[in-house]
Each structure stands twice: as C-alpha cells, then as structure tokens.
C-alpha cells in the first residue's frame, strides 16, 4: 500500500471507529443483559426444581457439588444462596442495580465452580470452559459497573462512580 492510499484510508477508518464507539453504551448494556439472562436460566430450574440439561434436579445437584465435591458445610444453605444469586442477582444485573457487587459474587461463584469441576476442558458436559468464561465476563462487569443504561447510573449521586 502506498503512502497516498494509506493517508486517504485514515479518515474512513476514523469515521468507522467513531461510529462504532457511539454504539458502545448500547452494546455494553446488551452484554450485561445477555449475561444476566444466561445466569437466570441456570437459577430458575433450581427454584422450580425442574430438570435442566443433564441434571434431573439442579438444586439437588448444587447441594451435592457443594457437599460432596467441594466438601463445604451447610450445603443446602449455600445452594439456596447460589439459587438466589442466579435468579434475583441475575435480575439485578439485567436492570443494572448493584451491578458491581452482584458481578463480584458471580465471579466468586464461577471460580468455585471451576475449582470443583477440576482442570478439564472438554467441549461436552461438565467442562469448565463455561464457568471460566462467565467468571471473566463477571469480572469485567465488576470493573465496568452498570454502564450508561443501568439503574446504578440513575441512582448514584452526580460525580460518584460506584
């Protein structure tokens, strides 16, 4: 490519970059909401005690994972908290309310799930690629906050970025 071609391409690239950047607040809201919907689809079967994927009873599966795989006490109570995080917390993430706190809790949940599932990366049932990806996305949401289209942005005092 000649210098002349490159210099004529710069304004076009700058225009594309500016246009793409103008969509960022909407796309971040879409990312946050999509993340919340996916999380919710894992909490709702626990609430309803209905099958989900290969699990006949996801709540019983969570209790088993916490008690027998992770060896933690109060498995039923911890599974209940996981269910609340994946339902009420997901709704809070979707609306952007308490975004950083909820996303931090989801990050910790995904770290625990990844640890419990072990260091396997199969592209079939029981691999850790899903919780690793969800954990990294949750960590990004912790850093980014609710964004422009969130209840957090509407409720926080001016100049305070929480």
Automatic annotation (TrEMBL):
Chief place of localization: membrane
Superkingdom to which the source organism belongs: Bacteria
Membrane-spanning residues: 26-45, 65-85, 97-118, 130-151
Species per Swiss-Prot/TrEMBL record: Pseudomonas viciae
Name of the protein described by the UniProt record: DoxX family protein
Single GO cellular component term: plasma membrane
Keywords, in A-Z order: Cell membrane, Membrane, Transmembrane, Transmembrane helix
Compartment annotation: Cell membrane
Coiled-coil intervals: none
Mode of membrane association: Multi-pass membrane protein
Family: Belongs to the DoxX family.
Pfam families found in the cross-reference section: DoxX
